[in-house]
Amino acid sequence: MKKVLRLISVQLGAILGDMLSIGNNRKRKPKAIYFGVLLFVLGMGSIAFFYCFMLGKGLQMYNSIDILPAMMMAVISMIVLLTTVFKVKGTIFGFKDYDMVMSLPVKTGSIVASRLILLYSINFLFVLMIMIPMMIAYGVLANPGYLFYLYGLLTIWFIPLVPIILASVLGTGITYIASKFRHSNLANIIVSVILILAIIVLPLFVKDTGEEIVNFSRALTEQVNSIYPLADMYTKAVVHNNSMALVSFLGISVVCFLLYSLLIGKVFKKMNTVIMTGRYRTNYKMGELKQTTPFQALYKKELARYFSSTIYVLNTGVGIIMLIAGAVALLFVDLEQMLGVPQALDMIRKVSPIFISFCLATSSTTMASISLEGKNLWVIKSLPVSTKVIFLSKMAVNFTITAPSVIAAVLISIVLELSMIQTLLLLGITIGFSFFVAVFGMLVNLKLPNFNWTTETVVVKQSASSVVTIFSGIGIAALQYLMLLILPSFELAYLIYGILLILTDIALYKILITWGNKRFVAL
Amino acid sequence: MLKIRNFSKSYKGDKKAVDQLNLEIANGDIFGFIGHNGAGKTTTIRAIAGVMDFEEGDIFINGVSIKKDPVACKKITAYIPDNPDLYEHLTGISYLNFIGDIYEVNKFDRETLIEKYSDAFELTSNLGDSIASYSHGMKQKLAIIAALIHRPKLLILDEPFVGLDPKAAHTLKSIMSDLCKSGSAIFFSTHVLEVAEKLCNRIAIIKNGKLIAYGPTKEVTGDHSLEDVFLDLIDKK
Q: Where is the ABC transporter domain positioned along the sequence (chain B) (predicted)?
């Protein structure tokens, strides 16, 4: 047990080190980083509380507040499931220090246990960020007895267990099958995008309003209960204080996890050997080679890097996928009828640039592109190309990813029957914001690079650079709403915002080619 | 070809990793740079390659300052670090083609030289594989081939023989000799003193960031072996 704990502390330390370190020095963690992390946790917690409270208020109007804990438990279970599928490779199988760890005089079972607990710990933090605010919101709205809090706090520890098992089984299957293919990452990305699209698009076709939405939520909860009986047990235990349900919930979770650990222990070495050695081998024969310019070569290299990482594509592509899915769905859905609100189209016309900007704010590939050079940084630094060309090639990849947003803007302007001026404003803000996320992401990454990462997930999702870029982008996008409130017409609001955005873009680009150049040379 | 003038580098205000280094390497030289671990060899090599920024002194490649025009210097230089971390998402051939594009090597030269050096290092059949599947030695060979396909006038290598099998090490030594005969200069660091003694026409020994011996190999060693001279200098000075 001592060895397992030591392994966990070293591995958790490495992940936290990856998340908090800046530049090449693992020890250099400015106080601002800790403050930023605290702010992030508090911010996420506040958003979760606000969401749960508003949802609870709505449910309370229809005497259905009791389904709130189960709904949020199902939501967090789904989040754990979806995010863990892509963490299995890199955490349990095919992780970077496999050879080093396996050569230690420690039992394989202890190594497996440490990897599973590591996976559990990462997920547990997210469970806490959602479930604690949910308990507070439910407590305020439903005023439950002390047993709710007691059982709630007890069950929190066990909620991630079964979703982790399901995700691991799925992830293991995908990893095993993908290891047999030459373009395994592409196969991984395609399956994941289909999954995301299904989650986004399907609810749009459910034509329910008002009370029907609550009925729908209840029906959905019942459906979740039948598919995932643990959610039902959870409700009975936490909301209705049923101790038998509590014991069953805890017992099933723990037994399943133990059985799963034993199973993984049996296949751990075999699976890792298959993944590490099962790569495609060819007998290459020299043929004709295609020539391109240095810029095109850098762009192609950067694009190949982007598509080689499933987590990078999913994390920065989901906003654009949502945008395209939303724009296409608009073609087939009668919005006024679906929302049940007259003049819904007018409202949507007003907020469509904000929606596009929000989607773009999550689509900065440049926020991680310098950090992802990692140990390869010497390659681009030793090449005979100017820093400006390197920056432009990285930004060009970002433009390639955000380019479909222009098509989405055109579709939206057709469906919403926007005037010529409104269409131009929408297109201007879309293009201006695409440029903003590319330049701003690059500047933030230059300021807060991380070259010591051990998993790409940390750089793409949890590094200081990605958090600052995404939240600043969301803030800048939200400014439009403020301007809508202040200014008399929405055309004027977007015109002023558009001009300010273009001026910001120009200023940021100038900073990039002056300060950014010096900063890159010094890295 | 290479002039280092009063080059110094310190990290975060600590003591100097390299202190007032002055060196000169002419066309056709094979220059061995020797020193104990942490002596300042890699720091110097990274500065020459334009990978690391520095404030004190200057480095000139073919008369051009690396500080003032790094792109012009890098165009005629090739650098191989001690640990060749390459783009693992690319295949061997796509990496070589990428380097060919960046250095604007014409199609004929590119295809001919890739084939020549890949065959010499027995890597041709693996060029279609992902670099992620390569062993350390294979990555080292790929980095060497990438460095050679644009015919550099200055080749900078940090511990080039580490990880290479005996045949590949022999191939590299003969390629280095050929390159110098054609007028290029080679600057490399090594801990294998026998190789330095046999291969280099000039050597420099660095200790704690300062140059303690520098000149034609025969002048530096005199009647002794390079190993004896090195151990003597490191222990006494």
A: 2-233
